[in-house]
Amino acid sequence: MIYHMTAFIAGFVLDLLIGDPYCLPHPVRWIGKLIDYLTNKLLKQEYTSKKKNRNGLILVILVILATILISAAILVVSYTINSYFGIIIESVMSYQCLASKSLYTESMKVYHALKERGLEAGREAVSMIVGRDTASLDETGVTKAAVETVAENTSDGVIAPMVYLAIGGPVLGMAYKAINTMDSMIGYKNDRFYDFGKYAAKLDDIVNYIPARISALLMILSCLFLGPGYSMSNAFRIFKRDRYNHASPNSAQTESACAGALGIKLAGPASYFGKIVEKPFIGDELRAVELEDIKRANKLMLATSVVCELLCVVILVL
């Protein structure tokens, strides 16, 4: 247990310090390549809906099994060589499951692009972290998109993998990342992936159900430590009211907490592939969205991650 806890803490610290440098190999990229390979083998447009659905389930099973077996094998071999070597490898694997620094870095690129180079640069920067069309967004729209990404990914990219790391170490943490990656690659409701990606999308909803709610509650709690500009009471009020204002059962959990904490209105209609998608608003417009809200959302995300890490360590010690 002491080895696991040491690696759990070290992984979190490494993520805060290093993030995800493009020059370093990352397991999620390898998982993505496996998903691509299996998709090309298992998905043909001439297949029936039933066969696409079945093959999608086969892909989900194969990717999860491969991820678990490889992760477990790496840990077993590492600890067999030497306990200290095992701790180092487990720490690195834990760090690679988390994305707080990379989420901060990528969203702050939007902040600096808007502030220093103007709207076109901001649109280009935000297009790298959102799926919606960005060409017609104004400065408020770009800022909102960045804030929403930080809020939603506080759960998907930080708290959820942290919870699974605490429960089952890097093996479970990597399995979660595999599920999350499958959803992001094939969990679309379009002509190509509607049947094939159903199991991936549903499984992602399931594994994120509890972590998303934990994330939102910890986000609300974190307002206590951030001082002026963050309202714990309003965060809880908006969370209770708007936490299901999304097609996903999980995405609006943290978005509602963040919107309430900052006193702004998020979400609403957005353009995807040239078509306007009507989505409900989240939050009340107690004030206008401003560029500094990207910084504020990141402070809330980082505070939430620290609170979650500390709580997990306390639980592991007990």
TrEMBL record:
The chain crosses the membrane at residues 57-81, 158-179, 210-231. It is a multi-pass membrane protein. This is Cobalamin biosynthesis protein CobD. Belongs to the CobD/CbiB family. Pathway: Cofactor biosynthesis; adenosylcobalamin biosynthesis. It is found in: Cell membrane. GO terms for molecular function: ABC-type vitamin B12 transporter activity; threonine-phosphate decarboxylase activity. Pfam families: CobD_Cbib (PF03186). One of its GO terms (biological process) is cobalamin biosynthetic process. HAMAP family: CobD_CbiB.
